[in-house]
Amino acid sequence: MFTGIITDIGIVDQVQMRGDMRARIRCGYDMAGVDMGASIACDGVCLTVVQKGADWFDVDISAETLSKTNIGANGWAAGRRLNLERALRVGDELGGHIVSGHVDGVARIEKMHDEGDSTRVTFAAPDALARFIAEKGSVALNGTSLTVNEVVGNRFGVNLIPHTQAVTTWGDAREGDAVNLEIDTMARYVARLAEFA
What we know:
GO terms for molecular function: riboflavin synthase activity. By secondary structure, the chain is mainly beta. The protein has helices spanning 63-68, 127-130, 162-167, 185-195, and strands at 8-17, 21-26, 39-42, 45-52, 56-61, 81-86, 105-115, 118-124, 138-141, 144-147, 150-152, 155-160, 178-183. The protein is built from four helices and 13 strands. The strands form two sheets. The protein has a seven-stranded antiparallel beta sheet with strand order 10-9-13-7-8-12-11. A six-stranded antiparallel beta barrel has the order 1-2-5-4-3-6.
């Protein structure tokens, strides 16, 4: 489990396509404190550390994960920056919301414009997921816990404050970008319960 509070920005160092995709990600974590088999969310995708060095870790990414995320069939390009978060530990502060690292689908950035010091971003969500997104609710976008400002149909908006843009990859975002979307777990359960009401 994760919180959607990004703790590092990783850089894809190399990618190998074999049965699964293997990616080497450089990071600022003290890898001596990261166990083999540990979970790290990479742009919101929960991945398992399968090999590590002083300032890097390797992950294997299945074809299923490639098909359901913005990684895509061709994989990440070397040099790509990724939002990273280590798994939640008992006693850690829950600063965002509960995030599983299981991406539900891919949203697309439709519009961006400055609003004061912040940037307002409008996304188009897959139709099947739009009903789970609520005004003032939470979503995880590329692993970042964000509050939804408004929802109209399958479109929803968030505000990115300067701090968020500085300490995550959101400062690199552009219109047209594909973004990993994880809906709020609570919203999923509420919708499921409503089916039986």
